[in-house]
Design goal:
- The structure is a single chain.
- By secondary structure, the chain is mainly α.
- The chain folds into two domains: 60 residues, 434 Repressor (Amino-terminal Domain) (Orthogonal Bundle), CATH 1.10.260; 39 residues.
- It has seven helices and no strands.
- α2 packs across α3.
- The longest helix has 25 residues.
- The chain is elongated and about 50 Å long.
- The relative contact order is 0.09.
Length: 111
């Protein structure tokens, strides 16, 4: 999926018009249209603003990352976990791994 298609898809998921989105990003509506049609590529600075407005990582927007799920909320959570004291972090990671393991097991047996 190209960057223009991603911008269009994510903007529509947020229920934003090109005009509303352009205001958030700080560019004209015409430029948003050109980005979405892949007529021009946004600069790094504008791409960062677009990614921020769409709540996705710049890597997802510009790269081949398959998941936009590594969004700002997830990244913030990861950073918050990194700031915990080691004993609490270990407990949280143990719990998270147990929940993930159980979910994967349940999914595997559902098929």
């Amino acid at each position: 999926m190209n960057i223009g298609h991603k911008i269009t898809e994510l903007r529509k998921l947020k229920d934003l018009s090109q005009t509303e989105f352009a205001k958030q990003v700080g560019v004209s509506r015409e430029m948003i249209g050109r980005y979405e049609r892949d007529e021009v590529m946004p600069s790094i600075e504008v791409a960062k603003k677009i990614a921020d407005a769409l709540d996705v990582s710049l890597d997802y927007l510009a790269g081949d990352a398959q998941k936009s799920a590594v969004d700002k909320q997830t990244l913030k959570l990861i950073h918050d976990i990194e700031d915990l004291e080691p004993a609490i972090k270990d407990k949280l990671l143990y719990l998270a791994n147990a929940v993930i393991r159980d979910a994967k097991t349940k999914k595997a047996y559902a098929h």
